[in-house]
Specification:
CATH architecture of the largest domain: Alpha-Beta Barrel
Oligomer: single chain
CATH superfamily of the largest domain: Glycosidases
Shape: globular
Radius of gyration: 24 Å
Order of helices and strands: HEHHEHEHEHEEEHEEHEHEEEEEE
Structural class: alpha/beta
CATH class of the largest domain: Alpha Beta
Strand order of the largest sheet: 5-4-3-2-1-10-9-6
CATH topology of the largest domain: TIM Barrel
Number of strands: 16
Number of helices: 9
Strand content: 25-35%
Distance between the termini: 51 Å
């Protein structure tokens, strides 16, 4: 049996874009990592509007949003029973406010998925380092977040770990945390230090050229699981140099070209892009970031506005019944071509000389990820020529090629772990990116 995604994993990967919202005490201390001794009185956003966060995210194509409910400094953005280091002792909303509640409500009203980041490392909590005691504390807080705010689609853990006041290193009870999540939010994905979504391995937003969602299990996260499983990659990166808001970075928001490159090397390499956009001290997404996000969305919409291969004549070297070649150009999400044998090929007749510089390939990952090697050929005035050779495809592979004018295009599946199910082949001619 080949590993397949669960329904929540499949929905997450097909959503493609998630937004991270690093917001909390660090926003007001101008730091990246707090020390846990910050005064709750310092937390006081003047115009906090989670609906603005969510509406900008939705407008720009994001489907999942993840809020830092507690960062390493231990300051909690909700009305927790288990520490005084929280919004209940801040002047914001006269100590009655709950950022997580407002965030959850905004996500629900907009029809977007809500995720929670809860830092296991806690530099404020005195039981940290007393592993059993702190694990109980952490599970208590996790339980609050999973029972008060409706559906939670993703729980995001990083592996930051330090010594507690007793000088001992905390040992996280990962399996205990997972058991609570599975019980209280059975459809929630557990990310990074978790069994459902893995870290891509850098904070640049780039996946590997060869990116498999099928991976060996890691005992710490997968328990006693044996054999390969479905563990897809998430690419996290910030739109600014830092993860938390700093006024001096208002002029350092990533360029449009950089963000487009990140999209092609994350979503376009069988991964999900988790883009951090940190709210400022007002409690709003900063103006420069919002402007760049809107430019980015407009540019992506322009790039993928017209599929030059859709509904063109296509033939295959072989096809199984019900999985014919036309499935790859019919524009439907639930059809696919499946050859009878390998190697296999598809040939699309573009009917007239057509110029393109992007090739999009997609597998039907509901039934797994299989392709190990493929090539793309174009029939030009000089004859057939290979314009791309690649390895994995997965949910989506975007290949940028030197602009080529061709009358036919051939996709060759050269190696595959099983007979592949190719869901889509698209061709695009991307206009030149213009910056504001």
């Amino acid at each position: 049996m080949h590993p397949k995604p669960t329904l929540p994993q499949l929905a997450w990967q097909e959503a493609e874009l998630s937004m991270f919202l690093h917001f909390g005490m660090n926003t007001f201390t101008d730091r990246e990592w707090g020390e846990g001794n910050e005064d709750p009185q310092w937390f006081n956003p003047s115009q906090l509007d989670t609906e603005q966060w969510v509406q900008v995210a939705k407008e720009c194509g994001f489907k999942y949003l993840i809020l830092t409910a507690k960062h390493h400094d231990g300051f909690c953005l909700w009305q927790t029973r288990y520490t005084e280091h929280s919004v209940k002792n801040s002047p914001w909303r006269m100590g009655k406010g709950d950022v997580v509640r407002e965030f959850a409500r905004a996500c629900q009203q907009a029809g977007l998925k809500m995720g929670i980041y809860l830092s296991p490392w806690d530099r404020h909590e005195r039981t940290y380092g007393d592993s059993p005691a702190y694990n109980r504390y952490f599970i208590n807080q996790l339980t609050e977040l999973l029972t008060r705010y409706g559906e939670v689609a993703e729980v995001w853990f990083d592996g930051a770990c330090g010594e507690g006041p007793n000088g001992r290193r905390q040992e996280y009870d990962w399996q205990g945390y997972y058991a609570v999540i599975r019980k209280l939010q059975p459809n929630a994905l557990i990310a990074i230090c978790g069994p459902d979504i893995r870290w891509v391995g850098n904070e640049d937003g780039y996946a590997a050229e060869t990116e498999w969602s099928v991976q060996d299990p890691v005992p710490a996260f997968h328990g006693n699981a044996t054999g390969k499983g479905w563990w897809p990659a998430e690419c996290d990166v910030s739109i600014r140099p830092g993860w938390c808001y700093h006024a001096h970075e208002d002029t350092k928001v990533k360029s449009l070209e950089h963000l487009i490159d990140i999209y092609f090397k994350s979503v376009g390499r069988n991964s999900v892009l988790l883009l951090n956009v940190p709210p400022d001290r007002r409690g709003l997404l900063p103006d420069p970031d919002v402007q760049r996000l809107r430019e980015w969305r407009k540019a992506l919409d322009s790039i993928f506005a017209r599929d030059l291969a859709v509904r063109k004549p296509v033939r295959a070297s072989s096809a199984q019944r019900g999985h014919g070649a036309a499935s790859v150009v019919d524009g439907k999400r639930d059809t696919c071509w499946m050859p009878r044998e390998l190697p296999a090929s598809l040939e699309i007749d573009l009917r007239q000389p057509t110029t393109f510089n992007i090739v999009m390939l997609q597998e039907y990952i509901a039934e797994g990820q299989h392709v190990e090697e493929y090539s793309v050929e174009a029939l030009t005035s000089a004859g057939w020529q290979e314009i791309k050779r690649g390895t994995t495809i997965g949910h989506k592979k975007l290949d940028r090629v030197v602009p080529v004018t061709a009358t036919r295009v051939k996709i060759n599946i050269l190696r595959s772990r099983a007979l592949p199910l190719i869901r889509n082949v698209s061709l695009y001619h991307a206009p030149e990116v213009k910056t504001a």
